[in-house]
Give the backbone structure.
Amino acid sequence: VPYTQSFENTLFPPNCWSTLTDSLSAAPANMWKRTTSYKNNGVASAYFADSKATTIGYLSTGAFNFEAGKR
């Protein structure tokens, strides 16, 4: 896997990443956060707290340039 991102660093979102919560959603104050409570690997993960799935939130990486034949 040539591209990975962990959330071990306390800087959140990581450099070149961005978060956005739709202001017209039911709970626009809900945002993506770094958490150590819910993780799969390592000590931290990204987490979006909305158990009713009524809020639209985005966690986006920066742009990638995939050039053929390069890794």
Notes: The mean pLDDT is 81. Strands lie at 18-21, 32-35, 45-48, 57-60. The CA atoms of residues 21 and 57 lie 4 Å apart.
